[in-house]
């Protein structure tokens, strides 16, 4: 059977309903009249149940008028139903062909279910477009971040193969540095991906947060000293149930951010307990973060302008990794303007 449009189906349905209703009404009227004459003697002066030509004329006119009115009402109703569905179908075809900005349009809110369907579809399309844009951004950013170390490695290795470079300790250290940079980018991407999918493993252990922060400071102290940045600590002894490796990774990422962007001076690192949470703050004397960038600071590959990025280095993944690790612990990280004049980062981590 060949399918027909919903609009035509509704019209045919309403026409059938009108005809059936008329037949039933006429039959009931004729039957009740016959019963009244047979059992009660009469319903009219002459007890004549036959219909005259005028009666049939009235019957036909009434049916035609009912049919026309029901058809017009059905057409009007079907337009309210069909038009949003047609725009939905059109938007679906456009999206399937790659036009992710297409949206369904509902000019009427007459039918609640249709309006909700259009709204849900547009929300889904919006998320799909956003996700597609994020994938493109990620692909471009990953390619950009991997291109520099890979190009350097390729050039140096090609130079060694051609005899242009002499294999000395300095060259090997440079090559090793590029490999370590690649490994860090890959590990950061892996951490973020696992966190987004909900599979970032947390190996919780009871640790003293003061000890963990001190270990991180000791590890990054040479980098801070080389930038004339002196760490100042105000750390309380607080027992925390967390993954010590991940927490050290998060604090290290923040302090690494300090070595890249802070001005010479001090970096204040504090920890204290509040409402069953340990609060860790890191404040520096740098330039801070501009207002617009603060909104996307903890998203992957979100950095200041490219010139600044090239000057200070970094992949734009560090703070995104911090955010992923804290969310996996049920905590959070936020930016604030430090009283020292620079950037401030506040980590909130449940103690239990």
From TrEMBL:
Q: What is its main location?
A: membrane
Transmembrane segment boundaries: 12-36, 56-75
Question: Which locations, inside or outside the cell, does it occupy?
Answer: Membrane
Q: Gene3D superfamilies given for it?
A: 1.10.287.130, 6.10.340.10, Histidine kinase-like ATPase, C-terminal domain
Q: Which reaction does it catalyse?
A: ATP + protein L-histidine = ADP + protein N-phospho-L-histidine
MF-aspect GO terms: phosphorelay sensor kinase activity
| UniProt-listed Enzyme Commission number(s) | 2.7.13.3
Task: Quote the InterPro entries the UniProt record gives.
Answer: HAMP_dom, HATPase_C_sf, HATPase_dom, His_kinase_dom, HisK_dim/P_dom, HisK_dim/P_sf, Sig_transdc_His_kin-like_C, TCS_sensor_his_kinase
What range(s) does the HAMP domain occupy? Answer: 79-133
One cellular component term from this protein's GO annotations in UniProt? plasma membrane
One Pfam family cited in the UniProt record for this chain: HAMP
Residues forming the Histidine kinase domain are 141-352
SMART domains associated with the record: HAMP (SM00304), HATPase_c (SM00387), HisKA (SM00388)
- Recite the UniProt keywords alphabetically: Kinase, Membrane, Phosphoprotein, Transferase, Transmembrane, Transmembrane helix, Two-component regulatory system
Its recorded name reads histidine kinase
